[in-house]
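User: Teach me something about this protein's shape.
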Amino acid sequence: MLSAFAEDFRDAANDKTRLLSRMCKLTDNSLLGLQGMWNIVSGRGKKIIIGTISIMVVVYGGIVVMNSLSSPSTGVGTALAELAPCPDSPNCVSTDASDSAHGIEPLPLADSEQQTVAILASSVSELPGGQSVLTKDNYLHFEFRSPWLRFVDDVEFLVDTDENVVHMRSAARVGRSDLGVNRERLEEIRRRYESALRANVKPEIDEFATIEKSEAEWQRQLTPEQYYVARKHGTERAFTGPNWDNKASGTYLCVCCELPLFSSETKYESGTGWPSFWNPLKKTSVEMQSDDSFFSRRTEVHCRRCKAHLGHVFEDGPDPTGLRYCMNGVAMQFEPTKKESEEAGGEE
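Assistant: First, the predicted structure itself:
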């Protein structure tokens, strides 16, 4: 029995030896092939190849050294001096917006802050490689990443309703090293944004028309938060969305199609942290359907024109309807009455 085991062991060892020998021969043949190809290349060609490899090594080595010796700017900026109120943003750059190396002329404001944010998000998202890092109130941070050598363009916006402008700031970087501003990209964003502003002339609302768009079109039009809530039936956290505590007079429009949905006259403080109304502007403005998600039966409310998810309606509201239309603030945009707008303009 031991003899048979020893014989099997020898056969296995011989097989491994033969396999190793074949691998060595293949390696030798490959090296000989490469050497033969190298011998075929002319002297000029060899110099070009060696020079190219040397340049790549020097450039990449320089980038590695530069990254190891440098660090990004730090600190949290104030509203007008710097555009970085965002330690939450993973790639936040915090350079003074008035710095000639990073600053750029501000953009004009749209009709409202919400509309401005929506147009900015759409204009930037349409560019190749653009992705949202953070959208928080009146602050937006986008980045453009290159698959090569860790090149990144950070582009930040601050919507300033006091000055009626959008402050724009950018920093191009490799790893952690600041390389200034990619002004060509910023000017392309400016062209797209201002073109969208000129085209943003409100048509006559046909509330009985149906608006249908592809998911890609909705994503380009809406901010990530708006798309999640309005198109994917999401819910914003209580006390975080826009207009939950707004007491101004005006109309609440669908953020997707601008159909008038609710009036400030039927808005009331429900204590829930979401904008609440006891009646829609018109019965034809919204539609309801049963919602059985989250192991409960509720009644979903959506825009009649574009089917955007708005929220839910409950039977615990005030008189005269006894209903509470509990809406997501991010799914609507507020349009103040003309009187409110004029008074706000006079205060400035």
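Now, about its shape. Confidence is low (pLDDT under 50) at residues 70-99. DSSP finds seven helices and 15 strands in the chain. If you'd like, I can walk through any region in more detail.
User: That's plenty for now, thanks!
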